[in-house]
Amino acid sequence: MRSEDRAEIRSLGLFRNMTTANFDAMMHAAYAQEFPAQLQLVRQGSRATFLHVLVEGSIELFSEWQGRDSTMAILRPVSSFILAACIRDAPHLMSARTLEASRVVLIPSADLRAAFRRDADFAVDVVEELARCYRSMVRHTKSLKLRSARERLAAYLLKLSVRNGNAAGFALPYEKRLIASYLGITPESLSRALKALAAEGVHVQGTRVTLTDRDRLAALAGLDELMD
Amino acid sequence: MRSEDRAEIRSLGLFRNMTTANFDAMMHAAYAQEFPAQLQLVRQGSRATFLHVLVEGSIELFSEWQGRDSTMAILRPVSSFILAACIRDAPHLMSARTLEASRVVLIPSADLRAAFRRDADFAVDVVEELARCYRSMVRHTKSLKLRSARERLAAYLLKLSVRNGNAAGFALPYEKRLIASYLGITPESLSRALKALAAEGVHVQGTRVTLTDRDRLAALAGLDELMD
DNA sequence: CGACTGATTGAAAGTGGTCAACAAAAGTGG
DNA sequence: CCACTTTTGTTGACCACTTTCAATCAGTCG
What we know:
The structure is a homodimer.
Chain A: H1 3-11, H2 20-27, E1 31-35, E2 40-42, E3 50-56, E4 59-65, E5 68-75, E6 79-81, H3 83-88, E7 95-98, E8 102-108, H4 109-118, H5 120-146, H6 149-163, E9 169-171, H7 176-183, H8 187-196, E10 202-205, E11 208-211, H9 214-221
Antiparallel strand pairs in A: 1-8, 2-7, 3-6, 3-8, 4-5, 4-7, 9-11, 10-11
Helix pairs in contact in A: 2-4, 4-5, 6-9, 7-8
The first copy, chain A, binds a DNA duplex through residues 148-150, 175-177, 185-193, 195, 206.
Organism (chains A, B): Paracoccus zhejiangensis
Keywords (chains A, B): DNA-binding, Transcription, Transcription regulation
Domain Cyclic nucleotide-binding (chains A, B): 14-133
């Protein structure tokens, strides 16, 4: 593994506080790997054998059922994923695939669990990371159940703007079909919803978005500390 | 606190493996309390100060936004709740209220965190419990995003049947309005969806449900290990 | 009994989905 | 680099499902 990967992982919230001895032991059998775009890394239903840490690129977590599928989360570096399945040593509930060429570090879940038992500081960080993931899923579910499609989209656009330093203009970071699936609607509905938001000062050309009436949009989105 | 409450909590998966010394220390400031029905125990946005353990009765976890609300989970004894907020020491994302008269044990979250640091066996159990909660929320979200309302209802009825020993007839355990909210639809829609399921052999009279064609219903519900 | 809450039903409206056609981009291979 | 293919995005027409609102019915509880 590249030493900068190692350093980057070490500096992740998850691994920052563990002792060097435990970190080294845990990483002993870990390895980094490059994956091309659109490669499925995890298949739902399979057993968790490695904790994955995304170092470069981006990852989609999605679920499948009866030929349908839905995007559950979109991950950016540096973040771990499938922590819960590793801990429970249970089948994955979600699949994962790369959205672009990505670099992922794989840590054997048995070594993760051993480190957890040996190092209380690490245990604290693991449980905090997992709590973060849980709360993130709760937020996603709340948005699905409490907001309409248009409201979800409005909130999503505002969050993108915030991520870009409150810019009025920014580019959509992913394909629209992916965003649609994440928001729980079809691509056609997204296309129409974007047009409908022109009334709230949203203008879209290709991947380029411009917000001309932030207040109106915010009123519709109703951004909430407890949901967004 | 009643000694049987204490014993019951001690035998919970969460607390079974910790040392007696740590259990006693953690429970030192804990206390049990009876609450009447329909009492709100937790308000979303407030700070987590106690881990709650439901010993008797039932609890609804729900979320509110802009005057709307939605049932996120329904808990039965014995189960803990708001573990994630305790761990993160963060505002609750969900509110909680009793559905019926309930008995709840309250453990100061600071004591919980202290026990977590001192006792690796307990730490393992906490993280497993949290992973269970996370996975439960993932399942709920999958069902919302991948299934239609009718499919969700079919799956819900089949799960109720399983819970009743695969009985063909059983009573709905909660008010229909609550079930509707949990399934992400209005009470009116639930009423109509139940009627529509007559085609799959579902017959309802009041709270009494009878399934006369399990196979047809199962085909619609598409029960799945990774979602149900 | 009368008041209240929850459940059902009907009618109307709205929202989002499906299907099909087409346009626009992006990727592929000569 | 260009032509071709494939994928992604948009638009229209139509439909299914769900919600909303209102009225009614059915229990429950003082």
